[in-house]
Design the sequence.
């Protein structure tokens, strides 16, 4: 069963982060939306990411922003490459503490996920949104209802063979809301199982998704 996932909100496990030098706002938006990047734009991505530490020290294996993008550790990169070889693009960045000078700590190389694949797999008619169920709810809000009783349904044929993906850029756009943007990230049961086995922290399950043969 696939999952709708997001960054953890557990106290003590949330870290602050900022690129050094500061990233251009347009470039950041392009990365977050999964747009393909030209070689010039890739070259403009900063190579250092400053982060705060966990209460017990160190940083989690997955860090990022609430609506993406995400920066992942080497182990998670290896798992994704094992499950989906050649499907993802990993941009290396060095993770350092906010402290500088003698107190600076370096946590190694992580990987910014860019150009993440978007799958149009949500079965709108069988999904609960914040302002209603099905097509009517989608037209009104297009944001998933996170309540326990709510359901998010995916098309099994579209997600077959995929382990980590996001909503397509067009999701949520309707004639009444042509510029609306909705973020959402999903992973397979197999990927989530591997993450838990390896004790890679940083993501949380927002909702287990139902699957149907559409």
Sequence:
């Amino acid at each position: 069963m696939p999952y709708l996932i997001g960054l953890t909100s557990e106290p003590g496990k949330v870290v602050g982060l900022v690129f050094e030098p500061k990233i251009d706002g347009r470039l950041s938006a392009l990365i977050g939306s999964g747009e393909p990047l030209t070689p010039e734009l890739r070259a403009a991505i900063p190579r250092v990411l400053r982060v705060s530490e966990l209460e017990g020290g160190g940083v989690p294996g997955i860090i990022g922003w609430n609506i993406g993008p995400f920066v992942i550790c080497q182990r998670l990169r290896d798992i994704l490459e094992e499950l989906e070889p050649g499907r993802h693009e990993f941009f290396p960045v060095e993770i350092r503490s906010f402290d500088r000078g003698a107190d600076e700590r370096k946590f190694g190389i992580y990987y910014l996920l860019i150009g993440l694949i978007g799958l149009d797999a949500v079965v709108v008619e069988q999904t609960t949104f914040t302002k209603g169920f099905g097509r009517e709810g989608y037209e009104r809000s297009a944001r998933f209802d996170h309540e326990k009783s709510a359901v998010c349904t995916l098309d099994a044929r579209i997600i077959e063979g995929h382990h980590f993906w996001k909503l397509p850029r067009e999701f949520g756009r309707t004639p009444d809301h042509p510029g609306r943007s909705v973020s959402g990230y999903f992973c397979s049961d197999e990927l989530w199982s591997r993450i838990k086995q390896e004790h890679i922290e940083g993501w949380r399950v927002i909702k287990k998704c139902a699957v149907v043969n559409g």
